[in-house]
Design goal:
The protein is about 15% helix and about 35% strand. The longest helix has 10 residues, at about 35-40. The chain has 2 helices and 8 strands; from the N terminus they run ββααββββββ. The protein is globular. The chain has one domain (about 20-119). The strands form 2 sheets. Strands 3, 4, 5, 6, 7 and 8 form a 6-stranded antiparallel β-sheet that branches. A two-stranded antiparallel sheet has the order 1-2. The protein starts with a strand and ends with a strand. The chain is mainly beta. The chain has helices at about 25-30, 35-40; strands at about 1-5, 5, 45-55, 60-65, 70, 90-95, 100-110, 110-119.
């Protein structure tokens, strides 16, 4: 472009910006239901680990016998076996981190589970 007697050269550096929620971002913010949904949408690989679940036979929350990581589909992440959200401020969220994964633990009257993604 030319403005008056000066030549102006515009350089547009198109960088591919990854739209992934980083662990450092989760550490610094208060985790809410919106944060959980954003984490699910932005995660490439999503895993669930069931810690405890409601057992109708004993009418209370029992620790889970299957604590392994299960790869899940994003569409069913909040209602998936292992992570249940009850809403109306009755869910508690906490940031969790291991050497290879980071994620969000969901705890409520239905049990607790952790949604993990790779570092």
């Amino acid at each position: 472009m030319q403005f008056g007697k000066c030549n102006v050269h515009l350089h547009y550096n198109k960088q591919l910006k990854q739209n992934i929620m980083q662990a450092s971002e989760l550490k610094t913010k208060k985790i809410t239901m919106s944060t959980l949904k954003s984490f699910i949408n932005k995660s490439v690989n999503l895993f669930v680990q069931e810690i405890s679940s409601f057992d109708g036979m004993t009418d209370c929350v029992q620790s889970s016998s299957n604590r392994g990581l299960i790869k899940i589909d994003k569409q069913n992440a909040i209602g998936h076996n292992g992570v249940w959200c009850v809403g109306q401020s009755r869910d508690r969220f906490e940031y969790k981190e291991t050497e290879t994964h980071y994620g969000i633990e969901v705890y409520n009257c239905c049990g607790s589970g952790i949604l993990w993604t790779n570092k």
